[in-house]
């Protein structure tokens, strides 16, 4: 893979607001080095040079002690890169794997021992309206829910909000945490009174789902993301005990539009405005979901 065109990801500046002790970035990725970790599904973007050392430096700069690495589709079903990153992190990292019916209880137990805590399922479409290469649908999560429950794992879903509203009731009976990526894929254009968004708030209020408040995939209005604030306020009001925060670093396919992690942390502090709730979102909730 030495000939592949890669990019250096944007490294953050330190936020003005100090993060609480043991803060967690619940959604980011590692890539490379490519001479050791070859891509299984070469993406249609220049992949980043984001090995574990650079990832840990990113966490250190913004004051996050821990991180959760999500398996990118470009690495397919091979979890080796994340497993090695977790092992090299001195207990600072956990992982979300990619997999389906091929996973046996013994294999899940092995992955759990390596620091993985769940599986990602993707029904979001790419900009051309096609499924992402290597994506595994949430329909598989429904089939695997008993196995996940037995392992103490959870499904992590990335889809549009209408799909979430359809799938979540099928997962609730299994009593497992249901984690939704990227602000649960709500529609900015439909507003906070959209019935699907209101249903999501009820799921949160009842304690069934956790939502990752990653901003950059829901809006290009960096750095203030004004159009997202009403939704973020509604999520916090619905149930701050069911919110997680993730940077989405190293911002795959975003190029010069990549945000600064430190700036986004400051924005969350400003929007939430309450130290106890900030600690809940950055420390207490991820400690429960990921076992930090």
- Largest sheet features: 8 strands, parallel
- Overall CATH class: Alpha Beta
Helix percentage: 25-40%
Number of domains: 1
Find the CATH topology: TIM Barrel
Structural class: alpha/beta
The rounded Rg comes to: 18 Å
By DSSP, the count of extended strands is 8
The neighbouring-strand order within the major sheet is 1-2-3-4-5-6-7-8
Order of helices and strands: EHEHEHEHEHEHEHEHH
Question: What is the terminal separation in angstroms?
Answer: 34 Å
Structure explained in plain terms:
GO terms for molecular function: hydrolase activity. Keywords: Hydrolase. Pfam families: Amidohydro_2. The chain has 292 residues and is an alpha/beta fold. The protein has nine helices and eight strands. The chain has a single domain, classed as Alpha-Beta Barrel (TIM Barrel), CATH 3.20.20. The chain has an eight-stranded parallel β-sheet, with helices on both faces. Helix 5 packs parallel to helix 6. The chain starts with 23 loop residues before the first strand and ends with a helix. The mean pLDDT is 95.
Strand and helix layout:
Elements: E1 24-28, H1 52-62, E2 66-70, H2 80-88, E3 93-97, H3 105-113, E4 116-122, H4 138-151, E5 154-158, H5 161-171, E6 178-180, H6 195-205, E7 209-212, H7 229-238, E8 243-244, H8 261-272, H9 275-290
Helix pairs in contact: 5-6
Organism: Sphingobium lignivorans
Keywords: Hydrolase
Protein name: TIM-barrel fold metal-dependent hydrolase
């Amino acid at each position: 893979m030495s000939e592949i065109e890669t990019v250096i990801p944007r490294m953050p500046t330190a936020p003005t607001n100090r993060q609480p002790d043991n803060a967690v970035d619940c959604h980011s990725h590692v890539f490379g080095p490519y001479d050791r970790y070859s891509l299984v599904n070469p993406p249609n973007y220049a992949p980043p040079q984001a090995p574990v050392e650079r990832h840990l430096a990113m966490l250190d700069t913004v004051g996050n002690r821990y991180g959760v690495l999500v398996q990118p589709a470009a690495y397919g079903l091979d979890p080796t890169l994340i497993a090695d990153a977790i092992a090299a992190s001195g207990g600072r990292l956990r992982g979300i794997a990619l997999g389906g019916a091929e996973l046996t209880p013994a294999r899940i137990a092995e992955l759990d021992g390596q620091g993985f805590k769940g599986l990602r399922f993707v029904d979001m479409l790419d900009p051309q309206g096609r499924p992402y290469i290597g994506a595994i649908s949430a329909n598989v999560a429904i089939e695997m829910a008993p196995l996940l429950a037995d392992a103490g794992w959870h499904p992590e879903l990335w889809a549009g909000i209408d799909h979430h509203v359809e799938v979540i009731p099928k997962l609730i009976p299994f009593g497992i945490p249901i984690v939704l990526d990227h602000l649960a894929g709500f529609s900015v254009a439909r507003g906070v009174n959209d019935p699907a968004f209101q249903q999501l708030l009820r799921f949160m209020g009842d304690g069934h789902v956790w939502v990752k408040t990653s901003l950059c995939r829901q809006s290009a209005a960096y750095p203030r993301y004004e159009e997202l604030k009403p939704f973020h306020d509604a999520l916090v009001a619905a149930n701050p005990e069911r919110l997680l925060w993730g940077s989405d670093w190293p911002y795959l396919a975003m190029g010069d539009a990549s945000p600064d992690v430190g700036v986004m942390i400051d924005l969350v502090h400003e929007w939430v405005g309450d130290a106890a709730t900030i600690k809940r979102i950055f420390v207490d909730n991820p400690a429960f979901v990921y076992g930090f």
